[in-house]
Amino acid sequence: MTPCHVHVKDDLSSQLKPVSLFVWGSDSQRVLERLMFVVKGPGGFETRADDDLHTRSKMWTSGTSNIHLQMSYFNLNAFQTHEKLSKVDLSDLLGTVEKTTGATKTKKQLRNLQNRNATLELPLNKEQTEKIERSVAYEKSTKEVTNWQSIVIQNQKAEQLVFPLNQEPSGPKRVEQVVARWKAVTPLEQEIFRLLHLNKQPVLDPVLTEVEEASLMAMSLEEATIRRAELQKARALHSYYEAKAKREKKIKSRKYHRIQKKAKRKEFLKQFEERMTTDPTGALEDLKKMEMSRMEERMSLKHQNSGKWAKSKAIMAKYDESARKAMQEQLQINKDLTQKIVTVSDDEQETPEESETVPDFVNEVEPITDSVNPWMRSRIPQEEPEISCVTPDKPQISEEEEEEKEERNEEEDLLADFQRRRTLRQTEDDDLIPTAAEEQILNTCEVSREEVVGEGTVEISDSDENDSEEEEEDVSQFNTLFKLMSSEKTHEGPALTQDQQEDEEQLDEGQLRVRNMEDLEGLEVSDPLPGTAAPPLMPQPTASEPTAKKSKREIDLSEVLTKEAITIKVAMKPTVLEDEEHEEQISIIKEATRNCLMEAGLVDDKLDDLVYDKKKYLLKNVSTVEDVFVPISGEPGRRLLHVRTSFQTGKPITVTALTRQLRHPSVIISVNINHNIVQIQLHRLHLDSTCHSQQKSHTHCILGSVLNSSIFNKHITKGNVFSEVSSTVAPFIERGLQIPM
Amino acid sequence: MKVKVLCRNPDDYVRETTRDIQRVPRNYDPTLHPFEVAREYTRALNATKLERVFAKPFVASLDGHRDGISCIAKHAKSLSTVLSGACDGEVKVWNLPRRECVRTIQAHEGFVRGICTRFCGTSFFTVGDDKTIKQWNMDPPGHGLQEEPLNTILGKAVVTGIDHHQREATFATCGQTVDIYDEQRSSPIRSFSWGVDSFSCVRYNPVETELLASCASDRSVVLYDMRESTPLRKVVMTMRSNTLCWNPMEAYYFTCSNEDYNLYTYDMRYLKCPVNVHMDHVSAVLDVDYSPTGREFVSASFDKTIRIFPKDKGHSREVYHTKRMQHVICVRWSSDNKYVLSGSDEMNIRLWKANASEKLGVLSAREKIAANYNKKLIEKFQHHPHVKRIARHRHLPRDVLKQKKQQREMKEARRRKEQNVRKHSKPGSVPLVPEKEKHVVAVLE
């Protein structure tokens, strides 16, 4: 054993004295040993004194060799096996209480406890206690963790996060910062600081105090008087010159002023000529001044020969030599004034041209046609929804004529159409709030069904009067089925929507490797869009109709208005329909169309024709279509109708959209998809927007610098998360804690 | 007579210095720019295309190990230093900017199972198959001196993982139990076990630094508090979790990588069902690490790919793979949020960009503005079909693709079957279990 070790032991025993005194009674030697062991720890102090080069590693190895003898590796209450040494028992401590003085109360309590005879309850079994301990600990730590919630949410909502978050400016800090952070702790320090504060010791500029500065600023009497005299003189001079200028200005004599002016000019010219030789840049400035004065004079409209004097002189000039001369002089002056001084900067020349390049219409005031969308104000027609109007005057014209007419006034028609559509859409937007179109029918059928339920208007189309009853049956069947599905849906809902979301965010993974732009072009063109994977079947055009015409327009009038005008005879009143609603609607249709036709000055019986045709058209088109969009460029497609075929009869049942159709009797809403537009069209509303108009406005909000000032542009294009290059982003730490180095 | 004339202040149109940019009188009236939306759409499309064309995430490959990489550790302070342990017991210290190994240590016999650096960056710890925990100095030994550990702790069982406390001189290891060691002592100051005999990973919570979580072989994830004598709670899942990682910015979230090809993000306060299930891998996920910003995490999988997931999305935003990269064993996100490091079976450490198309190096102000603008444009038009199609497209190796297809079919079949069962049984008797709840077997208190 080395002497060092002995020293340590001595020291310890002296420190332990008060404890040992307390325990000394029973078997004090044993307790002391035990305490010594506990304090010394497993490694003990023996190895500390080792003077070898690799002290530390050796210590560790020797320590480990010792420890394994005494404790089990997995159970840390190791000393229990070693004659229960690890804890100082309560009984050990309490045993000595009897012999000490004082603490009578506790003694009494102890004695009472000893005398108690009641049986204690059985302690909980180990599993239970552990479980309780665990749950208590868990509660505690969850509570602790929850303290972070506000920060977490705040960060999640933050528009921009710049990492590292808790940035402290690196580098040397100013003295004041350090001083401000440092706080006086000891009484001596506090005393010193109090003194300093009393003397108003400055923090920012620790060189001089206020008092010192004031003393520095002080002047002697002599200096003060001199300075005062100087100031007085300056003031006097100033007032003298002021008075002089006022007096001169008050003189009304023209001659005086003229002479003054002339004298000034002469002097100026003299100076100018002098300067030409000595100081060319100064001369240039002078020249500019002269130019300015010339301009001013020219602007003053003097020497224009339009004044009273000039007119009289002009009359007199015939007769009077001097008048003639004066006139000539006047003209000369005018001419001189109109001529510029030659050296003019380039900028000045350019400006008028520039102003010319700005087109006139810039300054025109645009009428606001659409209050919702300011971007639509332009007169340039943008792409419009495929809602085509059947104007009431068209039906009566025969096909060929109509075609001709179409060609003739195509432009006019177009314009009129656009106008009309615009107004139509404005009115429509209120009652026709569109739902997002969805293309993945397979995945989302349940969801869409729910939407239909939400709208709550399940209606059937009134097809031919003959089988309307049959249809009724279908409807009832459908309704029951529908309820069943919707009830099922309530179970299936969340999972499926999640599925759908996932589809949305999933990557498109394939074997195609993108190396250059051409590959991307290929990607763009070749791949069928997920939304348009199954384009709905269109109703086959009848043989008589030329297909070329169809490609021209989405809805062919000829298709709408078949030649079978004989069927007009169908009664004005649908006889078989029982449903009140339907009657009502049909009557509405008739009313409306009649109004239209009346306006157009048409005969009554054509109206039935139209109604019939429209009905027919609707049923024909709708029956085959599965999911329908109204494509509008830049807007999400609106799902107008969702059609399911009845399982048993296979006959079409149309829902909700037909009601909309019926609400606008003079409009046939196209149910066809324009594939060219669908390619670049949104297919559904997205998470950040709740309605169609919001999405639209989002799209129309310009990010670029063309329509935004640069500052705003910078603001809206800044990234969400910004982490600085080559700076470590450390995890959050509790406030007030510094990382020790 | 007073005459009013047009008078323009030359300040409005004359430039003051030759370096001034000429002021362009601009009319912000939107009617004058009717095609601006269309123009922006085109710009967005082009930006997307360029982004994809310039998406070259692979930066460098560090080779030098003579066996598969088993673990990687970031240096706590230095961004340019990375440590890696291999299956032959070798530990290498790498200099990233120079892309070379600066130090090699034969640390263990058998695998190096875990490696972690001390918070101050002056030393690091390794654990290996030879049942030892070793502490090494970060500085190489002087000339002529041998590599020797600062400390060695001999254990009785194999230690499989190690993690160091954020601020204090304690570290946690896992093997047959989860042990908390004081650096000054050779025996654990605390030891946790809860009916399990093998743990694969233990991680300290970087924010709430007294908390720990571990993955055990009985398919469970167990939470601990260093100050308590007992574990806190245990959640048992259908399959085993390999590793886990705490979110460094959000104290109560952690993500574990599972054998069932998915990753699960849990809120430690509500363990009953995960907050999010991240699926896309087609084989067991072996490692996961959060970005230091806590917004995303990267996962390494047995299917030879690494994927980057946003923390709240179910699917990955990025997938990285190369022909030569085999099963990826470990992955780390660099602490400046710019790079991802992956160590794989075929003895290489690969350095990837965290944003595939990000330009490296110093950007000029104009470049920055342009990049920001493009990013916003892509974000604005991200839902449009063309843009989406291009932005989402990723190349995948054939095998992975095949497996993916297979799995999709299997999943679909399972779903269909379940649906049919539900349809033909008494309503309510076959409950619909959401995907999130399917994977949790029990939460033990």
TrEMBL record, chain A:
Pfam families xrefs: Utp14
Cellular component, GO, one term: small-subunit processome
Chief location: nucleus
One GO term of the biological process aspect: rRNA processing
Annotated transmembrane regions: none
Keyword Signal: no
Biased composition (Acidic residues): 398-415, 461-475
Region (Disordered): 379-478, 489-508, 524-553
Protein origin, superkingdom: Eukaryota
Keywords carried by this UniProt record: Nucleus, Phosphoprotein
Subcellular location: Nucleus, Nucleolus
Family stated for the protein in its record: Belongs to the UTP14 family.
Name recorded for this polypeptide: U3 small nucleolar RNA-associated protein 14-like protein A
From TrEMBL, chain B:
InterPro entries: Sof1, WD40/YVTN_repeat-like_dom_sf, WD40_repeat_CS, WD40_repeat_dom_sf, WD40_rpt, WD_repeat_DCAF13/WDSOF1
Biased segments, Basic residues type: 413-426
Record GO cellular component, one term: Cul4-RING E3 ubiquitin ligase complex
Subcellular location, record wording: Nucleus, Nucleolus
Lineage top rank: taxon: Eukaryota
Keywords: Nucleus, Repeat, Ribonucleoprotein, Ribosome biogenesis, rRNA processing, Ubl conjugation pathway, WD repeat
WD-type repeats, residues: 62-104, 278-309, 321-362
Principal subcellular localization: nucleus
Region spans: Disordered: 395-438
Occurrences of domain Sof1-like protein (ranges): 354-440
Biased composition regions of type Basic and acidic residues, renumbered to the chain: 397-412
UniProt record, GO biological process: female gamete generation; maturation of SSU-rRNA from tricistronic rRNA transcript (SSU-rRNA, 5.8S rRNA, LSU-rRNA); protein ubiquitination
GO molecular function (one): ubiquitin-like ligase-substrate adaptor activity
Pathway(s) per entry: Protein modification; protein ubiquitination
Pfam family, one: WD40
Protein family according to the UniProt entry: Belongs to the WD repeat DCAF13/WDSOF1 family.
Protein name, entry field: DDB1- and CUL4-associated factor 13
Species of provenance: Triplophysa tibetana
